[in-house]
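Every protein is a chain of amino acids, and every chain bends into a shape of its own. The protein below has been through that process, and both of its lines are reproduced in full.
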Amino acid sequence: MPSILGDLNRINSRSALQLSLMLLDMNGVARGQVADAIRDLRQKAEADGKLHDFSTLRKDAHNGFTFMVAEDLSHRQLLDRLSAWCEIKMAKTGASAGAD
């Protein structure tokens, strides 16, 4: 989890700060589950070259986050896919977007 928080700190945006605070607000077990899920996504993407993601919604159902990993996409392509996927998820769940 420390490397995830460091990566978010380097992004230096309001959304990255919001995600950092959401992660820090989780209990240790939940943070460990997120870290394990990210590690699994990376391993799957490395093994099969496909796009993999997972999302979670907070108990208040107003916000959450999605992690997406793809080996064969450029940074821009991945961000475009992630943005589109998050819009679909927000429409389905009624979650709100953080602003930069």
Summary: Helices lie at 2-11, 14-25, 28-48, 75-93. The CA atoms of residues 68 and 81 lie 9 Å apart. The mean pLDDT is 84. The chain has one domain: 2-93.
